[in-house]
Design a protein that fits this description.
Layout: H1 3-18, E1 28-30, E2 38-44, E3 47-53, H2 61-73, E4 81-85, E5 90-94, H3 101-105, H4 110-125, H5 138-156, H6 163-181, E6 185-188, E7 197-198, E8 205-206, E9 213-216, H7 219-225, H8 234-250, H9 259-283, H10 294-305, H11 312-319
Antiparallel strand pairs: 1-2, 2-3, 3-5, 4-5, 6-9, 7-8
Helix pairs in contact: 4-8, 5-6, 5-9, 6-9, 7-9, 9-10, 10-11
Length: about 325
């Protein structure tokens, strides 16, 4: 976005707020997400509010409102929507607070926060959605995997794959997608990770949910346990997997046979996708900070693909790639 475009957006936002008797002069920027949305904190007579500016992608506001209603009905703590303008891409939201679970995990209180996160996940997954959200189908899962090959391998690493590489890649992707589609289907937040969970009352507050779909039951658990910015020790991860399985069983949530493999393969699909997204953010959108976490994802992938004969060719393909430290 150019400086002129940014000024025009701020003027449009100021006009919108003024129509509700609020002044944009008190807006202070807060950390946004990897997408094109911008967030501000605003002091009002009723307390602080969060202003979401999605004017670059106004089409994301209607899904945000729709998923908000579903999650609220499921008993999750989502920020109250005080006002929304889907046409212009603006929302005025409840301020859930400034401390994310990522901050909590890095300090004391990680166990209490993780327990709350898993209970919230089970509430969401046990909520009957029917056809209220689009499906996380094979076409979408495959398109996400393509991001890795196009943006991470070709653009970020500068590798031009051979025909043999492409064949091996496609065969590995087909196995990952088939595994995902074979799982029981539930509501999927699609980015249920520590940065999108806020320490609040009640906790957690859940944000950044507008891309939710109906899809594989292990997806959000993989997002939570194998975070982009925080890694659990193996012993703790296993504890939380068993805790989730116990709560899911008690709530009647169907889980796949071969749960460990299903979780590993789902996590591998997600990590390949996110590496592609992070590379695209760096090279297309001018946001290089995210790709710095590539080594964490490669470590996840090495563990997730290990021990599965069907994925050995894919594991070897990824292991043979140049180090991201030498990326152009």
């Amino acid at each position: 976005m150019t400086a002129t475009d940014n000024r025009e957006c701020r003027r449009a936002l100021a006009t919108w707020l003024q129509g509700m008797g609020l002044s944009a002069s008190g807006l202070t920027g807060i950390a946004g997400d990897a997408g094109g949305r911008r967030y501000y904190r605003l002091a009002t007579a009723q307390g602080t509010r969060v202003v979401m500016d999605a004017s670059d992608d106004p089409g994301s506001v209607a899904p945000f409102v729709r998923v908000h209603a579903l999650m609220d009905a499921a008993g999750l703590h989502v920020p109250a929507i005080h006002a929304a303008d889907p046409e212009r891409g603006f929302c005025l939201l409840e301020d859930l607070g400034e401390e994310s679970f990522l901050q909590v995990f890095r300090q004391k209180g990680a166990d209490t926060a993780m327990e709350a996160a898993i209970q919230a996940l089970v509430r969401w997954q046990s909520f009957e959605l029917a056809d209220a959200l689009p499906p996380y189908n094979g076409e979408r899962l495959s398109a996400e995997l393509d991001l890795f090959a196009v943006w991470y391998v070709q653009r970020h690493l500068g590798v031009q794959p051979t025909p043999g590489w492409w064949q091996c890649w496609r065969e590995g992707c087909e196995r990952l997608v088939h595994s995902a589609l074979a799982q029981p289907r539930v509501g999927v937040h699609r980015d249920f990770m520590a940065r999108n969970l806020i320490k609040s009352q009640p906790s957690p507050g859940v944000i950044d949910f507008q891309d939710a779909l109906i899809g594989p039951v292990t997806y959000d658990l993989a997002s939570l346990l194998r975070d982009a910015f925080f890694s659990w020790p193996e012993r703790q991860e296993q504890y939380w997997i068993q805790r989730y399985r116990a709560l899911a069983a008690a709530a009647g949530i169907p889980l796949p046979d071969g749960f460990t493999q299903a979780l590993d393969w789902m996590a591998a699909q997600r990590h390949l996708k996110v590496l592609g997204i992070f590379a695209r953010l760096a090279h297309r959108d001018g946001k290089p900070a995210y790709i710095a976490d590539a080594p964490r994802f490669l470590d996840y992938l090495a563990t997730e693909l290990a021990g599965y004969d069907a994925l050995k060719p894919l594991a070897g393909l990824i292991a043979a790639l140049p180090s991201p430290a030498g990326a152009r």
